[in-house]
Amino acid sequence: MKKLGSGVTAVLAIVMAAGLSSAVSAQTMDAALARAYGANPTLNAQRASVRAIDENVPQALSGYRPRITASADIGASITQSEIPGGAASSPYHASATSRLGPRGAGVQITQNIFDSGKTRAQVSQSESQVLGARATLRNTEQNVLLDAATSYMNVLRDTAILTLNRNNVEVLEEQLRQTRDRFQVGEVTRTDVAQAEASLAASQSQAILAESNLKTSIARYRQNIGAEPRQLAPAKPVENLLPKSLPAALGQALVNHPAIVASLHGVDAAELQVKVTEASLYPVLGVTGSVQQRYDSQYYGDNRLSASIVGTLTIPIYEGGQVYAATRQAKETAGQRRIEVDTQRDTVRAALVSAWGGLEAAKAQITAAQAQVEAATTALAGVREEAKVGQRTTLDVLNAQQSLVSARSTLVSAQRDRVVASYAVLSAMGKLSAQTLKLKAAAYDARQHYDQVKGLLWGTQTPDGR
């Protein structure tokens, strides 16, 4: 463990030497993750999706409440009639014209009394959908935080590798200058100069590639965290938040992972959909009350007030087979959701085993890479001394220099992999969250919006004023 800690210090020392980190004003991993937690558009979009799904509950609860409608009408009618004379042979007729202004207003109230459990099933289904959406939100939060942590470490890694390659270019430029000087005095051949030139060109190419990789990582950082990386501070793995063994981690993941929880709520919602659909085959009992005021409905000046209350029992007999087919379809969908839970468990298991293996491998790689760096450093010093007395060629020196650069790059990558793998294990367990990491960010509580809208009886304005 002591060696692993010194390895982390080594790579961070490289970054700080490049002037890209400051002990005083550096941006930390926690600060970057807190920013992503509050501002990442993917996460905010999922929060909006949860708020939209919250509205399913008051929509379902409306099935218990009355429907009230008001109506009004106004018009004009002219009726002209002719009445024949008293005698059949009389040519005279009496005529009459009636002008009315029929108008009226009324109110109707319809109340559901019994709908064979359809409303109750819809309410339970909508609540399951809300719980599933919250679990999906937690999973999205995990993915966003993991992407942000990965982006952070990628920038640190690529910055360090770019620094290594630029330093290597400077070393090889000096090596080439010395080789040319020795060539001028006849100590080496033209071949030695060409080898030094080739090594320098290859190193310059690697530096260009490292710079390109860094630009890509910076762009990903900006996408995931929402700001340009400036003065990034060293980051540590979160192994203190992990269990001691893989079986313990699997036990937690298969119970608590939000993707599995969301799938289980999906099963509940699908099974309740069967009840919702099937309820259309059963009787519905309701009552309707109405009050209506009419004027000039039959003759000028009349005034009529009517009121009624009517109970209605509707019993479906046959609807062409549509509801039966829809019920069978809902049952098949519920079966599909159950299978998806097993698939999700297998996916979580595979992801956790992979992440755990990656973490263990990164630890071993750091130990090996540290030994490689120490050996390559010693070898380079020895080869240079031997080259001074003619026991080593220029190519030997160049190869030793390249081996050292490669070893340092391997160490940098292994250190990055260890940090990212620790976050990946935490995510695969379903525990990567702002709360677990104790980020200094305002916690988003999905229950707050749900409590605000669940019992609303009217109003189109959202709780945030839109």
Structural features, described:
This protein is of the alpha+beta class and 466 residues long. It has one domain: Outer membrane efflux proteins (OEP). Helices cover 64% and strands 13% of the residues. The chain has helices spanning 2-17, 29-39, 41-54, 56-61, 118-184, 190-225, 246-256, 258-278, 322-388, 394-428, 434-437, 446-454, and strands at 67-74, 77-84, 93-100, 103-114, 284-295, 303-314.
Tag the structure with descriptive keywords.
alpha+beta, two-stranded antiparallel ribbon, 12 helices, 6 strands, elongated
How far from one another are the termini? 54 Å
Q: Please report which band the strand proportion falls in: under 5%, 5-15%, 15-25%, 25-35%, 35-45% or over 45%.
A: 5-15%
What characterizes the major β-sheet?
4 strands, antiparallel
CATH T-level topology? Outer membrane efflux proteins (OEP)
- Percent helix, as a range, is 55-70%
Shape: elongated
CATH class: Mainly Alpha
Order of helices and strands: HHHHEEEEHHHHEEHHHH
Question: Could you write a compact summary of the structure shown?
Answer:
The protein has 466 residues and is of the alpha+beta class. It has twelve helices and six strands. The chain has helices at 2-17, 29-39, 41-54, 56-61, 118-184, 190-225, 246-256, 258-278, 322-388, 394-428, 434-437, 446-454; strands at 67-74, 77-84, 93-100, 103-114, 284-295, 303-314.
